[in-house]
Amino acid sequence: MNKKCVIFDVDGTLIASEHVTLESLKVTMKSLFQKDYKDEEIEFAIWLPGQYSLEKLKIEKVEETLKVWFENIKKLAHKAYLYPGIKELLEKLKVQNYKLGIISARYDYEIYEDKILREILGYFDVIVPYSSDLRPKPYTDQLEIALKKLCVLKNEALYVGDTMVDYECAKNAGVDFVLANWGERDKLKYFEDKPLKVSYKPYELLSFLAG
Predict the structure, then answer these.
(1) Last residue of one domain, picked from the residues 30, 58, 79
(2) Is the entire prediction scored with pTM above 0.70?
(3) For a FRET experiment, which of 29, 59, 96, 104 has its CA 20 to 30 Å from that of 207?
(4) Under 8 Å CB-to-CB from 111, ≥6 apart: which residues?
């Protein structure tokens, strides 16, 4: 069936920002708790909501730490950037009348206060941030909300993400998934031998929308 909508993850999919997430978390942990971490020790923070990342690190004062972490993210935000070709892809999809959505592990303020992300938010019909009343990906809560708001069936949607939790979320919801394997980091290594549709450049995504 031809697709009617495309739903995107944010970090590592629309925006190259994983390094900002990890660097800001390391700064936060060092300044508040005098703890040093390597990237591979906190890599889960790329795809988990902040609350869950901090709980995984056994932080007790989650709300206070989240505020400091977000301030550090804002200080380092200039190091993040839209992946080349993303804006052109979104323009093409809108011209072709696809409905567009976002589901993300980010909280609403992390989406709407991001200057880089604000450059493209106008392309999207539905944005579903994470909130405490939702279960995080790979649970399907956010994806199901997006599908309902976009008024499309699961077989009419394509979900584009870059992590295993994105893949599992789509699979759990019965939605087709495409791995956004663009950028400097090869994400295929996280998927072992799983059957995948892979897009290596944003424009290649168009080939997965028919049939």
Answers:
(1) 79
(2) yes
(3) 104
(4) 10, 102, 104, 117, 121, 127, 129
